[in-house]
Amino acid sequence: MKDIRYWVGKVLTPEQAEVEKKPEPKHSVTGKLNHYRDQKKQQPEQTTSQQQHKKQNMERTAQICEDNGMGYFDYAGNCWFAGHSIFLSEKGNKNQQPKEHRSVSIFERTSVVSSCILRELFEDVRKIWKLKHLAEKVECSIGQVSKLMKVLVENAWVEKVPDGYKIIDPESLLLEWSKDYGKKEVATYACYSLDNVSVIEEWLKRLKKDMGIDSYLTGLSGGVRYASVVRYNKIYVYIAPENIREAISYLGMKEVSSGSNVVIFSLENDSYIKNYRVIGESVVVSPLQIYLDSMQIKGRGEEMAEAVLRKEILR
Description:
Blueprint: E1 5-7, E2 10-12, H1 14-19, H2 29-40, H3 48-67, E3 72-73, E4 79-83, E5 86-90, H4 103-107, H5 112-121, H6 131-138, H7 142-154, E6 158-161, E7 164-167, H8 170-181, E8 188-192, H9 197-211, E9 216-218, H10 219-223, E10 235-239, H11 244-250, E11 254-255, E12 262-266, E13 277-279, E14 282-284, H12 287-294, H13 301-313
Parallel strand pairs: 10-12
Antiparallel strand pairs: 1-2, 3-4, 4-5, 6-7, 8-11, 8-12, 9-10, 13-14
Helix pairs in contact: 5-6, 6-7, 12-13
């Protein structure tokens, strides 16, 4: 193998190499590597989390290619090629000039339109969507849907098929979403009530009747309505920010720095309660929102998220 020189799409024997002694093409693998190595010193150092994220992305993409028998070369010099009697493989090199990871922006809490599109996709993970129909359903532009789909396709979470687009890796997509979803802290109010959780939940039902204030169960307290897999002693609930103080007063609770048994999330936008359900007189956020919120809860939160994922989202 040491006597074989190669470019993408062209393999030369030693004899051919002697005849075709040409300078390295401008866009050869070697040329690109030298170019990026020269510019490495000019690039700012990336954080450990960014490096780890990009490394995982590269490894995942490489594995997809290998599983489907598709050879590849990347800008870092990693490659996998098998044809006839030739086998080439190189792994472990870091990309010297990676592109910015764009999926972070589509998963942030503030990306309301992207959130609504993703939530619509997860209403039925088997459904094939056309851009126009999805845009009409979410009430946004086709351009916004197209931009989001491009990111999802590039990360192999969604596939473009003859009839439109469909999710092909919902678990990886949700896991990535949950990671970025938890990076920005949402406004919360940790409270304590002398009542036990069942009594507090009854008071929450009366909150709507007596005060006209809506509340939506989430986390473990909401998740048990879909999959009763864990016990809980803390209530998680969404309430509109302008109603939180009044709700705390009505429920006879007080804010605490530790030892809370009720956590109120500020309902910053309506995407959090999209497709909510009424289960046994309790208003509960969608299974998707249960998954995202439960993944942020230490302890048995991930167990709850996994149970809801299997029973409700991937059904």
